[in-house]
Write a structure and sequence with these properties.
alpha/beta; Rossmann fold; 7-stranded mixed β-sheet; 5 helices; about 15% strand
């Protein structure tokens, strides 16, 4: 399948899909941290380029409720961020949109699922919301103990936001394994139904 990982500079989710045989591309305003198929530019400009599946990670700076005390100073920026989310949610192919606990829930709609890293092999806590279109909820792959909020204790510095935003490998693998396989099966079922309908008519 042709897979688009939006707002990803790390290449982690992209490479998880690539490892399973998909034609996976990341897209971000920043260059990719890893070599690979990467579109450096505006995600909205490539949404209609024939993708079969998407996973989007829109910036959460003006959306996450952890920064609620600053919302009143950034109304315009938050409105623009929400409009960006709405456009991603309107993408014409199966996709998931990922964000922490945020105003997306109150301003647009509640998430379809909330996951934690400790459900996918990482002993950490970080509530992550998923808004899904034509995709099933992720299933746990490896529940572990030793849960700590690592991202909350990230040292201050210019790369703090990057370190906090990277998708953990266990979650990336689950997305690629479960959504990649499910969407591929769905596509085959649609083709088979079309063939059968053609024979019957």
């Amino acid at each position: 399948m042709k897979v688009l990982i939006g707002c990803e500079f790390s290449g982690i989710v992209r490479d998880a899909f690539k490892a399973r045989g998909h034609d996976a591309w990341s897209c971000d305003l920043l260059p990719s941290e890893r070599p690979g198929q990467h579109i450096q530019g505006d995600l909205l400009s490539v949404l209609n380029d024939g993708w079969d599946l998407g996973v989007f990670h829109p910036p959460c700076t003006r959306l996450a409720v952890s920064g609620a005390r600053w919302f009143k100073f950034y109304r315009k920026e938050q409105d623009e961020a929400l409009e960006f989310v709405r456009k991603l949610m309107a993408a014409p192919f199966p996709h998931a949109l990922e964000n922490p606990i945020s105003v997306i829930s109150s301003k647009i709609r509640k998430p379809d699922q909330i996951i934690q890293p400790w459900q996918f092999g990482h002993g950490e806590t970080k509530a992550t919301c998923l808004w899904l279109k034509d995709l099933p909820p992720l299933k746990e792959t490896a529940v572990v103990a030793g849960r700590e909020g690592r991202v909350h204790f990230e040292s201050p510095g210019p790369d703090r936001w990057k370190n906090r935003s990277r998708t953990l490998q266990g979650i990336a693998d689950a997305m690629a394994e479960q959504w990649g396989g499910w969407t591929d099966q769905r596509a085959k079922a649609i083709v088979l139904k079309t063939m059968i309908d053609g024979i019957i008519t």
